[in-house]
Amino acid sequence: MNILFVCTGNTCRSPMAEALLKSKLVEGNVQSAGIFAGKGEPLAKNSELVLREIDLDLNHQTRPIDQDLLEWADLVLTMTDRHKQTLALQYPDDQEKYYTLKEYVLVDESQWQHLKNLYAAFEEKRLSIINKYKDKVDDQEIEQKLFEELEDEIKEIEQREKELPDLNIIDPFGGNIPIYRNTRDELNHYIERLVEKLRDEE
């Protein structure tokens, strides 16, 4: 399996995730990239230091995300839901591969599917309401109708979203060594879970 980790600049979180997974998963291919990354920049110094603390070394140069990388990847794991949303907007053809790392290892597939179904039903009803009233009332009244007629759907989606865990890995960029160490340890925890999941799926 080809696994791609994605963060913002490809200097902190995604390369640390890459190094951690490479140390645990012999049979996979792992790379990392950044949505707003430059090309050929080094690993952040503190990322390098906290990896060395656990005897890991990564010969790393930053690279921006592109279509070739997404086609190479079987699974794209982002550090935040914002990264995932950005990829879905910029590269919609590959969005079935996109998950946040924490979502992929924590969220039960049926739970996630139910939420996707709620989003789809909400959007369908929203468009239907707009079409029903667009020639009869002004925009402000349409907004009011949407709020009234979608109130139950909004409440259910909010409730389901509250049941989901926080799906973001904290960005240590610009922080001190303890902050980078915390991010490394958080990543390590979820990458252990990822390895277990990948082995279960073999």
From TrEMBL:
Belongs to the low molecular weight phosphotyrosine protein phosphatase family. Keywords: Coiled coil, Hydrolase, Protein phosphatase. It comes from the Bacteria. Residues 1-197 form the Phosphotyrosine protein phosphatase I domain. This is Phosphotyrosine protein phosphatase I domain-containing protein. The active site is at residues 7, 13. It comes from Halobacillus faecis. SMART domains: LMWPc (SM00226). Residues 130-167 form a coiled coil. Pfam families: LMWPc. GO terms for molecular function: protein tyrosine phosphatase activity. PANTHER family: LOW MOLECULAR WEIGHT PROTEIN TYROSINE PHOSPHATASE, LOW MOLECULAR WEIGHT PROTEIN-TYROSINE-PHOSPHATASE ETP-RELATED. Gene3D superfamilies: 3.40.50.2300. InterPro entries: LMW_PTPase (IPR050438), Ptyr_pPase (IPR023485), Ptyr_pPase_sf (IPR036196), Tyr_phospatase_low_mol_wt (IPR017867).
